[in-house]
Amino acid sequence: MPAAGTANGSTGNGSAAARAASPQAKIAEGRVFAYDKANGFVVLQCISNDNPNAATKKFDLRIINTCTITSVSIPAASSTPAMDLIPVSAINWETSAHREAANIRLMETKLAKIGVGVGRDAQDLFDALSKTMECRWADSSIVVMDRVIISPPYRPENCKSNDQSALQRIKLVVC
């Protein structure tokens, strides 16, 4: 990208205006907020589409993979709306760590609901049962409410439990 200056779309604060087109014919226009050559992306600060005509402008940061950009143009300074780059605020690392831990727990919970080495029918049965009852996988067997074990091939006769009422209820669902 050319050096910043008024002839190349600079805003006067050292940031260049740019328009990037992608193969999907999507065009992003805004100020170059950041460029990461090593990871191959550019961040553009664009006027938000939520309410572009509002008196106080809101901005979006669009992260664009440089591999998807087919062309870049630098509009004339007069054709780009005046906007200063938004200030970067400090990161609250404690909040970020809590959010990361919560997302990891959520993903681990989701992964635990995916049977390993089981067929589509077994996974569909597990998904149906887990909508209304607590279920987990124990190897290739489904454990329902820690009372009923459904072993492959996941038919009513493969359900085992000491709790006869729970067993009958599960057998009705497995049919």
UniProtKB/TrEMBL annotation:
Domain AD: 89-175
Cross-referenced InterPro entries: AD, Lsm12-like, LSM12_ABD
Pfam families: AD
SMART domains: AD
Domain of life: Eukaryota
Protein name in UniProt: Anticodon-binding domain-domain-containing protein
Organism lineage: Eukaryota, Fungi, Fungi incertae sedis, Blastocladiomycota, Blastocladiomycetes
